Amino acid sequence: MFVSDCLAVNEKNHLTIGGVDATEIARQYGTPLYVMDEGQIRKNCRAFTSSMRRNYGENGLVLFASKAFCCKEMCRICADEGMGMDVVSGGEMYTAKSVGFPMDKICFHGNNKSPRELEMAVEFGVGRIVVDNLEELDRLETIAAQHGRTACILLRIKPGVEAHTHEFIRTGQIDSKFGFALQTGEADAAVRHAIALEHICLKGFHCHIGSQIFDMEPFDEAARIVLEFASRMRSETGYVMQELNLGGGFGIRYTESDNPPRLDQYMDSVGACLHECCKTLGFPVPFIYIEPGRAIVADAGITLYTVGTVKTIPSVRTYVGIDGGMFDNPRYILYQAAYEAVCANRAGDPRDAVVTIAGKCCESGDLIQEHTHIQPVQPDDLIAVLCTGAYNYSMASNYNRNCRPPVVFVRDGETRVVIRGETYDDLLRADI
Ligand SMILES: Cc1ncc(COP(=O)(O)O)c(C=O)c1O
Predict the structure, then answer these.
(1) Residues in the ligand 1 pocket, defined by CB under 6 Å
(2) I want to staple 388 with a disulfide (CB 3.0 to 4.6 A). Which of 66, 275, 353, 392 is the partner?
(3) Which pLDDT belongs to residue 165?
(4) CATH class of the structural domain 109-292
(5) Does the pLDDT of residue 172 top 60, yes or no?
(6) Whose CA is nearest to atom 9 of ligand 1?
(7) Ligand 1, residues 108, 208, 244, 394: which to mutate, most atoms within 8 A of Cβ?
(8) Architecture of domain 7-38+298-428
(9) Amino acid 215: pLDDT
(10) Minimum mean pLDDT range among 97-111, 156-170, 211-225, 289-303
């Protein structure tokens, strides 16, 4: 009935998440509110970890791309599920460190890591630094030398595969701010430079071809291209890639019209391709990392809002004003991300009204969804926007000096706050 398995309708006709009545959760914690089902998060983690094991035995590690949803409790869950994490900033690294996350299971990304962030990574003993460019490589060599350490790195390669939801092409990817291009010889030069550096240990390569990808072929194609590159580097330089990070980007179901493969299907497809390719090239199967973000958390989350106003403009549209907006979910205003919405207190009724859900920010574009189907709603109704577990809290802001909402987790029929809601005093915290 809903896009996410953890949602249902109870005997009161209310939406439930993880078996708990959403209207009760809203009554207890207020709105706007992020709610996430821990069971669904763990189920998604296990879909990846078990298929990783099936395809690569102990020779692989699932890294949660923490940019999708970073907080202490999520780091604890990843550690508990035996996963590593991908971080892209000093802040994400610091969050992981603060809960004692095993730093050797962290991969540090970024196209312009600051010297301070690189130093932090070396000092914290981050497992792999994914080097993006030659300036960074030299900077890291200097920092590692100063600390008397060796930095283990992967080089980020642009495989030249550009993935879209329903197609892929092999050109154009050269125009990306991330990584070393294969076509220009930049990647070759980076390998030769890295293996000559004293405080750098080149473990292998990384590639990430995009996000919300529904086809499996681009993943297979990227793996094949990077393996062929590794094989060529072996014959030209003697360097043998030991590790391959295939990135994230596995598509998920945001709306009923989305029809992505199951998580294990992605893994099995690229696994089969990779084994076959290694066999053809006579190349040892490398240690594999993958970095799913949204596929771990998106469908575990909903955002609850209270309707404040309903403004019908005859022959134009109906605006439903909610108590949140682009400050808790900027994805529609950023790239017209699609979401489904449900009236949580009449969740089983037909969704036969068409409305525009408008946020409370002082921007005409502050919309959560336009012309979307929902039950007819009125002031004080509770709206749930579905599949908001990824890139909502992590992209939230204090625009218009709104407070970021709390995040509540549901587990075994119980709820708990994992990130408290901000107060007005929090807004003043950094002001002088
Ligand atoms: C390098 C890298 N890895 C992993 C991810 C996670 O992508 P997704 O959340 O689509 O799985 C991203 C997303 O931007 C990324 O840039």
Answers:
(1) 65, 68, 86, 109, 208, 211-212, 247-250, 291-295
(2) 392
(3) 45
(4) alpha beta
(5) no
(6) 293
(7) 208
(8) Beta Barrel (2.40)
(9) 87
(10) 156-170
| Residue located via tokens 């996963």 | 83
Q: Which residue has the tokens 């587990």?
A: 411
Considering only 140-144, 263-267, 358-362, which range has the smallest mean pLDDT?
263-267
Can you give the residue ranges of every domain in the chain?
7-38+298-428, 109-292
Contact 305, 254 (CB under 8 A): no
Clarify whether 362 is annotated catalytic: yes
In the DSSP assignment, the letter for residue 248 is -
Cα 290 to ligand 1 centroid, rounded to whole Å: 10
Structure token pair of residue 356: 């525009």
Q: Enumerate residues 6+ apart whose C-beta is below 8 A from 12.
A: 21, 23
CA of 316 from ligand 1 middle (Å) equals 38
User: Quick check: 160 and 173 in contact, CB under 8 A?
Assistant: yes
Number of other CB atoms surrounding residue 97 within 10 Å: 19
What pLDDT is stored for residue 210 in this prediction?
87
The pLDDT tens digits of the residues spanning 194-247 come to 999 999 999 999 999 888 888 888 889 999 999 999 999 999 999 999 999 999
At residue 164, the pLDDT reads: 62
State the pLDDT at residue 328: 98
| Residue of 291, 296, 392 with the most ligand 1 atoms within 8 Å of its CB, for mutation | 291
